[in-house]
Design a protein that fits this description.
The protein is an alpha/beta fold. It has 2 helices and 8 strands. The strands form 2 sheets. A 4-stranded mixed β-sheet has the order 1-4-3-2, covered by helices on one side. Strands 5-8-7-6 form a 4-stranded mixed β-sheet, covered by helices on one side. The longest helix is centred in the N-terminal third of the chain and has 11 residues. It starts with 16 loop residues before the first strand and ends with a strand.
Length: about 130
Amino acid sequence: MKEQKYSPLGLKGIGHIEILVRDLQSCCEFYKEKIGWVISERTEDFVNFEVLGVPFSLLAVKPLPTAVSIEMPQNSVILLFLVDDCDEVVSELIAKGVHFISMPSDKPWGRVAEFCDPEGNKWQVVKKNV
C-alpha cells in the first residue's frame, strides 16, 4: 500500500515556477549557457524552460509609473537543485563560469553549495542524505 503524503487544499504538485527579473537577456543567457536548460518558449518579456516536466519561467519586470514605488525583494526564495553528486555538479557549474557564494559543505540534511543568478536569486545544489 502506497503511503499518502499530506497535501493542503488538495494540491497535486508544483505546476509552474516563475521568477521576476529586471534583465531578462542576462538571466536567459545564464540559465541557457551556464545551467544548460533549453528554451521552450520565448517572447519579448518572457522566457520559458521545461525542467523535469515543470515549466520554469523568467518574466521581465515592467517599469512602474513614477507615482508608484515598489521595490522588488531579493533573496526571499531559495530554489534547490537535487543532485546525486553535489561536488561534481558544482565543479561543472564553476567550469561554466557560475560563481558560488558557498562551496559544498555537509549539513544535517545533506551536502549543500549555493550560488546566485544574475538577479541575485539564490540556488542551492543539494545531495540529500539517504
